Amino acid sequence: MFTVKLASSETFNVTAAEQSYSAADYTGRKKFRLRLECSPASHGLEWYLEKLSQEGALESVQVLSESGAKCFQVEGYTELDNSALRLLSTGERELTLSLAKPLPPLVSAEEKPGV
User: Fold this and answer.
1) Strands 31-38 vs 16-22: parallel, antiparallel or unpaired
2) Which residues, including other chains, have CB under 8 Å from residue 21's CB and lie 6 or more apart?
3) pTM, to two decimals
4) Smallest Cα–Cα separation from 28: which of 110, 112, 105, 111?
5) What is the per-residue pLDDT across 42-77, written as a single tens digit (0 to 9) for each?
């Protein structure tokens, strides 16, 4: 189990955390993504969304081990890209949250002044 600590000092537990990079989404923008998973989820989807939507909450996201050691810290995530709460046949709920950090579009040499 990991603890996620947001810049707003809110915390919640997850069972997996994954940072990835997508070459481009359907708009052509490249993105870093942070996916957080929890199974079984301790709360309903609205509870997690409330924590993530607080002012400045995503400015810094830390993932801490059970001992409290920092596994990694990310900054600049600005969007809740996807969220899902899936009910399993066992009756447990499985949570997936995906945060996105858009990267600025690449500027070609023709568009750069003085190049």
Assistant:
1) antiparallel
2) 30, 31, 32, 33
3) 0.79
4) 105
5) 899 999 999 999 999 999 999 999 999 999 899 888
